[in-house]
Amino acid sequence: MMVIIFFCFFLFMIIQPFGTQFVRALPQQGFISIDCGFEGSSGYQNNITGLNYTGDGPYIATGENRVVSSNPFGQLYATLRSFPNGTRNCYSLSPVQPGQRYLIRAEFYHGNYDGKGLSPTFDLHLGVNFWTTIAIRTNGGALAEIITVARRQKIEVCLINTNRGTPYISLLELRPLLYFMYPFANESQSLLMSTRWNYGTRDYLRYPDDPYDRKWDADSGEFLPLNTSRQVQTSPGDPFQIPSVVLQTARSFSKTNYNLRITAATASPGERMYIVLHFSELLPLNPANESRILEIYGGDAQLQLFTEYRPPFLVADHKEIINAVIGQSGTYTIAVYVKNTSTQPYIINAMEGFIVRPMNESQTDDRDVTAIEDVKKAFKLTRNWEADPCSPRQYVWQGLVCSYDASANARITSLNLSFSSLVGAIPLSIGNLTALTTLDLSGNNLSGPIPDILGDISSLKILDLSGNEAIGSIPRNLCGRVSKGVLLLRGGEGQCKSSGKNNKTTIISVSVAVSVVFLMILIFIWIFLRRRKAHSPKGELVKRLGLVKERDTRQRDIRFTNAKIKQITRNFEQEIGKGGFGPVYLGHLDNATQVAVKVLSATSSHGSREFEAEVLLLGRVHHKNLVCLLGYCDEPKHLSLVYEYMDNGNLREHLSGEISGCSLLNWRQRVSIALQAAQGLDYLHNGCRPSIVHRDIKSSNILLNSSYVAKIADFGLSRAFSHDNATHITTGVAGTPGYLDPEYFQNYRLDEKSDVYSFGIVLLEILTGQPPYMGSAEKTHIVKWVRTRVEAGDINNIVDPNLHGDFEVNEAWKMVEVAMSCTAASSTERMPMGDVVMALKQCIEINVPDYGIQPVYSDKSPIIPLISGEYALSAPTAR
Q1: For the range 838-842, what are the long-range contacts, defined as Cβ-Cβ under 8 Å and sequence gap of 24 or more?
Q2: Strands 575-578 and 583-588: what pairing?
Q3: Is 346 in contact with 334 (CB distance < 8 Å)?
Q4: Are 170 and 108 in contact (CB under 8 A)?
Q5: Comparing 333-347, 632-646, 654-668, which segment has the lowest mean pLDDT?
Q6: Which of 154, 399, 709, 740 stands 20 to 30 A from 44 (CA)?
């Protein structure tokens, strides 16, 4: 919902108490201040704020510059840029730092610039996501401000024509925030400003008094203003960094029996709010006989949020109301009451109210964005090629067809540039559109050779080059794909046919020679392996384990004979499980310790390589949340692994109810298991050198002992690599469907973030009790299933119904947030395992002890205690 501010607001904003004197200079590093429609070459400095403004030419290539004829507000609103053509026109703000928070503000003053006397209404988008709707009177104006997290190296602000008037814009500003400010804004949600009040003053305030250029509306009203000339202290890590000049004034009253009711936010019914109340005591109270004790209510002043609150003296303090839901009135009201034992009346220094905007629209894959932007530049294309190529779907670029996957970013699968008056050579960047199935360049004036890289697009099925008379030669790799029947080529196909005849004899000769050499190599390898086996009965594994034992004095001789394995398992008497490696048997060591013995079966999908990998890896890693290898047998045709016995089976069995006689995992057990598994995986990624990627993290590979301590198992697919030499490994895809990182699946690039994705799936299983694919006929993936429910905003529709509501709401939302980050389509957007561990620890810390405070309940919204005794509404619609 937009904050509508009409003529009087602009007058108030321009004629500020700063006067017309030049203000003191403050650093504007990272600031972007755009006077839209301004055509000056060098820009100018505003004589009120000292901010430097430039024209918008470098940030946008569309639209028309217009002059506002009726403008009493000075240079800032003298011009604008209107967009009579196109559905989506976008500003590209850069440079920005991905992952950093920014405040972005757009302002609109119409002034009947077109003389039509119309009142336009249009939408504003932040990249691919909806920001707000702008509705403006002919001589009025509006302001829209949002706090967001940059997802790429640029932020795009798009004006969307909704056929209700011509979109336009007057000012566009970007302000970087400190990395820890407004932590409730993240990559999945932004904060749309609804209100921002500075109480107890008549002075409107912004930069330079606020170095982050937040606009603070003055509000003294008919109440008692409190103020002080002393500085209000703010800690260096304070997440709001409210200027002292804001907190040095407050609203109060002369009597203690009066209470304050304020509208904190205005929005559509059902929207989620995030509200921050800012406090600081301005009077030096005598603790012996003076006190200011506040009771704060929300939800139309019906729900008690904070009890017996005492603002600290000359120190900034804040109370957050998280995920409040707007009712049918369209407003959210807060009441500040005074406890009957208080000797002082209520106080409030400042307040900010935000609408929580989901930022969950899928983007186009970064590789495709870079490639298609290069194509656009090379061919000097305009069309509707603005912002994201594939998203939102209704604004997909002309000539593109995209594929959409709930668990991955959109990919460009078809590019049609036929009859587009293209000239020159085909840019190499087209070959970086690696998901293309169809490429149509027909009917143009292209010349020069066809790039070899087109032959490397394995998915390409149709290539149309017809109608380009000066087109160059067809690369051999393309002709090879044509001859195999996997590529349909139009235009230049005759070159492939003649080339095939000329080279037929050569190809046959080379094929025969290669076959002979290959056969000789096979014979040599067979002889070598036979000799190696004859001279090394115990195999290379024992030698390699010897090296492990030299490095780790804790490692004991863990090699068993097959006869000993039979003794331990009582001749394989009791099978307790079965996996890809083979059956698992219960065993007992000589000291009566129970063990689990995995035996390689003849039909196993695993083999000696996986067996060796698991033995070597578990021989050198030791962690309380990794299963412990106690021994192995590597005799020919008898490969076995001996593990500590995990009494309570695996996590998947418990979540699905497959273990009879076991009680359902309660909420506290689930959170603990999630944290323990995360710690084990974090050890593999960050506690081992070289790092280890598990490659098969899933709920059935997380085992539970008698105390429900979680341990990660099954390291047969694990890979180790050093970050000193590479950031990833290129390797064949391995793992379990449903848990596979889609980015790894597509490009074969393996790193720790592939495990992070799989762990995110496990987190969602723990939360929902569901497997990776839902049991419906459509086989909906759990990420898509949860995402749709996050948008709906009801945590009860996400958490396992078998818990019957017995869970901590704030913890659940935090776990959802972590899981959504882990399963982001792009690995760069996923948090590393170290951060996952910290987030889950914070999640547990949310559940503070009960101090005897009785929560107040509405029909649907209980009050849940947070850290430091604070409260938050528990009827969120996303987090």
Answers
A1: 839/814, 840/671, 840/674, 840/675, 840/678, 840/815, 841/675, 842/814
A2: antiparallel
A3: no
A4: yes
A5: 654-668
A6: 154
What pLDDT, on the 0 to 100 scale, is given for residue 209? 94
Peptide bond into 225 cis (omega under 30): no
Helix (H, G, I), strand (E, B) or coil at 391: coil
Q: Are 218 and 203 in contact (CB under 8 A)?
A: yes
Q: Compute the distance between CA of residue 327 and CA of residue 270 in angstroms, rounded to an integer.
A: 6
> Does the annotation count 696 as an active-site position?
yes
- Torsion angle of alpha carbons 235, 237, 243, 247, nearest 10°? -50
Per domain, the residue ranges of the chain are 3-177, 220-358, 366-493, 534-645, 654-847
Rounded CA-CA distance 759/651 in Å is: 13
User: What kind of fold does domain 654-847 have according to CATH?
Assistant: Transferase(Phosphotransferase); domain 1 (1.10.510)
Nearest-angstrom CA–CA distance, 266 and 117:
28
Would you state the structure tokens that stand for residue 503, as one six-digit string? 């080279």
Integer Cα distance of 198 and 213 in angstroms: 14
Residue that the structure tokens 């559509």 belong to: 268
Sequence-separated (6 or more) residues with CB below 8 Å from residue 281: 292, 310, 311, 312, 313, 314, 347
The DSSP letter of residue 687 is: I
Map tokens 């009142």 to a residue.
119
**Tokens, residue 241:** 């960094």
- Reported as a single tens digit per residue, the pLDDT across 441-498 is 998 999 888 888 998 898 999 999 988 888 888 888 888 888 888 899 988 767 776 5
What is the identity of the amino acid at 103? L
Average pLDDT score over residue span 704-725: 77
CA distance 25 to 41: 22
Task: Give whole-number Cα distances, 617 to 15, 160, 562, 679, in Å.
Answer: 71, 55, 22, 17
Scanning the structure block, which residue is given the tokens 């940030």? 59
| pTM over the 0.85 mark | no
Question: Are 368 and 281 a contacting pair, CB within 8 Å?
Answer: no
Instruction: Give 703's strand partners.
Output: 650, 711
Spatial distance between the Cα atoms of 517 and 276, rounded to a whole number of angstroms: 75
Token pair recorded at residue 183: 């932590």
Fold of 366-493: 3.80.10
**Rounded Cα distance, 215 and 666, in Å:** 47
pLDDT at 498: 54
Say how far apart CA 648 and CA 632 lie, in whole Å.
Answer: 23
Q: Strand 88-93 relative to strand 79-82: parallel, antiparallel, unpaired?
A: unpaired
pLDDT score recorded for residue 514: 58
**Check whether domain 534-645 has CATH 3.90.1150.10, yes or no:** no
What tokens appear for 768 in the block?
């929902």
Q: Cα separation of 756 and 758, whole Å?
A: 5
The correct CATH number of 220-358 out of 1.10.287, 2.60.120, 3.40.50, 2.30.38 is 2.60.120
Catalytic position from the list 210, 365, 388, 696: 696
* C-alpha closest to that of 100 among 157, 177, 27: 177
Instruction: List phi, psi (to 5°) of 400.
Output: -105, 145
Label residue 486 left, alpha or beta by phi (over 0 means left) and psi (-120 to 50 means alpha). Answer: alpha
pLDDT digits (tens, 9 = 90+) for 745-795: 777 677 889 899 999 999 999 999 999 987 654 568 999 899 888 877 778
Please give the span between the terminal C-alpha atoms of the chain, in angstroms, as a whole number.
Answer: 19
CATH topology of domain 3-177: Jelly Rolls (2.60.120)
pLDDT at 56: 93
Query: What's the rounded Cα separation, in Å, for the pair 289 and 303?
Result: 30
DSSP assignment of 725-783 equals T-S-EE----S-TTTS-HHHHHH-EE-HHHHHHHHHHHHHHHHH---SB-SSTT--BHH
Write the CA distances from 262 to 259, 265, 329, 331, 544, integer angstroms: 10, 9, 14, 10, 72
Which stretches does DSSP call E strand in 340-395? 350-358
Nearest-angstrom CA–CA distance, 174 and 91:
12
